[in-house]
UniProtKB/TrEMBL annotation:
This is GNAT family protein. It comes from Jatrophihabitans lederbergiae. The keyword Transmembrane does not apply. It comes from the Bacteria. It is an enzyme of class 2 (transferase). InterPro entries: Acyl_CoA_acyltransferase (IPR016181), GNAT_dom (IPR000182), N-acetyltransferase (IPR051531). Pfam families: Acetyltransf_3.
Length: 207
């Protein structure tokens, strides 16, 4: 019988950045980070009937963890937390995994504002893309970003993802239907290396 969840669970590491499956013990740290970053994150999050504080408790994390693991078991997604040093500082998930002729997924992520600008998000995204296009056996990875999210656009452009399209009223975010830019990369585009090596080859900015 074919493996329904190739490539998961797995731990991916580059320098001080680790991407690994979430654990029940992450609940407290995850909740503290989310609650401290309400202003930073809420405007990018899906619309919810719950308040920010209610949907970011340790209990909610544990309930969500059960759903994430169930989806991973049937090969529908690869859920991860982002660890910097020894601290959980974000999440990154490869979702909407489709096999067959398409072999594609979409990736979404968030990062704690206290560690933004340190190259953590590009590194985590590069690790996940390389894993999806490699061991997981997918052909295409896409990332959908709101046009006003300039920081996230810089991340995908730095990694060499192509802008493929513009989706009007694509997702219900922050209480309204929001347009999104679609970026993607396929296995052929990294055949001679990895997305991570592409990132590591970029010049280090001065200062």
């Amino acid at each position: 019988m074919a493996d329904l969840r190739p490539g998961w669970p797995v731990v991916l590491t580059a320098g001080p950045v680790t991407v690994r499956p979430p654990r029940r013990g992450d609940a407290g740290e995850w909740s503290r980070s989310r609650l401290a970053n309400a202003e930073w994150l809420a405007k990018w999050e899906p619309t919810s009937s719950q308040s920010w504080s209610d949907r970011n408790t340790p209990q909610e994390f544990r309930r969500a963890l059960s759903r994430l693991r169930a989806a991973a078991r049937v090969g529908a997604m690869l859920p991860f937390v982002i660890v910097y040093g020894d601290r959980v500082v974000g999440q990154i998930n490869a979702s909407n995994i489709v096999r067959g002729a398409l072999r594609s997924c979409s990736v979404g992520y968030w990062i704690d504002s206290s560690v933004a600008g340190r190259g953590i998000t590009p590194t985590a995204l590069a690790l996940v893309i390389d894993h999806c296009l490699g061991r997981t056996g997918l052909h295409r990875v896409e990332v959908n970003i709101r046009p006003e999210n300039h920081a996230s656009i810089r991340v995908v452009e730095k990694l060499g993802l192509r802008r493929e399209g513009y989706h009007e009223r694509f997702l219900d975010i922050g209480g309204a239907w929001r347009d999104h830019l679609s970026y993607a990369i396929t296995a052929e585009e990294v055949r001679t290396g990895t997305v991570l090596s592409r990132l590591e080859s970029l010049p280090v900015p001065p200062g």
